[in-house]
């Protein structure tokens, strides 16, 4: 499996595909959120910068759409439990930062990161899979995880106020599938990165699956801002 999310899981069957772009490759990286009130949550993510480009812009922030490769290891014995380069024909993975599409520790570890930067991060169990572990991903209970991450792209994510207003072409304060589809096409064309052919449809499907709560075919300003990135 690849690509679930803390509290917000998506499966291949949900989208009718083998590897949903934002989620399936992250199945091993997404886990149920730790139990509320746990004291272990005070533990920190340790970040070691392995490579920092001279030109470090833009830096990643909550709500950005990131493209990255990563390897995951168990800190206990150094064994590798995940390698993104062996998934989805080796394409880097896309996900929105800071909204729970990956485990909490990775959302923290990849903040303020720039394209071309490489990091080695150590994530405590409280910010990963906690006491329950993740058997399907061969991650035991109370496992500290190490990830080596290489970030390729930082794009404006589809969740900022500015992005909402850009997407909402008719100004009706709700986003149609056509409006979001056009926005994604424009963003992809702007950065010129090579992407898996299914990227557009998978991101679009994922956005509606997670945010069109009343299933009316539109994403309202309230639905769009469910993660409280900014005030709309």
TrEMBL record:
This is peptidylprolyl isomerase. The gene is Fkbp7. Residues 1-37 form the signal peptide. It comes from Cettia cetti. One of its GO terms (cellular component) is endoplasmic reticulum. Keywords: Calcium, Endoplasmic reticulum, Glycoprotein, Isomerase, Metal-binding, Repeat, Rotamase, Signal. One of its GO terms (molecular function) is peptidyl-prolyl cis-trans isomerase activity. It comes from the Eukaryota. Residues 155-190, 199-232 form the EF-hand domain. It is an enzyme of class 5 (isomerase). It catalyses: [protein]-peptidylproline (omega=180) = [protein]-peptidylproline (omega=0). PANTHER family: PEPTIDYL-PROLYL CIS-TRANS ISOMERASE FKBP7, PEPTIDYL-PROLYL CIS-TRANS ISOMERASE FKBP7/14. Its EC number is 5.2.1.8. Residues 63-155 form the PPIase FKBP-type domain. PROSITE patterns: EF_HAND_1, EF_HAND_2, FKBP_PPIASE. Pfam families: EF-hand_7, FKBP_C. InterPro entries: EF-hand-dom_pair (IPR011992), EF_Hand_1_Ca_BS (IPR018247), EF_hand_dom (IPR002048), PPIase_dom_sf (IPR046357), PPIase_FKBP (IPR052273), PPIase_FKBP_dom (IPR001179).
């Amino acid at each position: 499996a690849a690509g679930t999310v803390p509290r917000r899981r998506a499966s291949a069957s949900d989208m009718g595909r083998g590897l949903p772009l934002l989620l399936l490759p992250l199945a091993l990286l997404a886990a149920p959120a730790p139990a509320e009130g746990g004291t272990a949550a005070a533990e920190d993510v340790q970040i070691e910068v392995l490579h920092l480009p001279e030109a470090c812009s833009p830096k990643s922030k909550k709500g950005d759409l990131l493209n990255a490769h990563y390897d995951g290891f168990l800190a206990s014995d150094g064994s590798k439990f995940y390698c993104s380069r062996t998934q989805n024909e080796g394409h880097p993975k896309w996900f929105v930062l800071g909204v729970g599409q990956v485990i909490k520790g990775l959302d923290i570890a990849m903040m303020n990161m720039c394209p071309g930067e490489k990091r080695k991060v150590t994530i405590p169990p409280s910010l990963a899979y906690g006491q329950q572990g993740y058997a399907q991903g061969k991650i035991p209970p109370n496992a500290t995880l190490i990830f080596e991450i290489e970030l390729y792209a930082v794009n404006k994510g589809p969740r900022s106020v500015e992005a909402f207003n850009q997407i909402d072409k008719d100004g009706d304060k709700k986003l149609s599938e056509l409006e979001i589809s056009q926005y994604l096409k424009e963003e992809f064309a702007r950065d010129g990165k090579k992407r898996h052919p299914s990227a557009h449809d998978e991101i679009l499907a994922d956005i509606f699956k997670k945010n069109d709560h009343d299933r009316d075919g539109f994403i309202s300003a309230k639905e769009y801002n469910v993660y409280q990135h900014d005030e709309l």
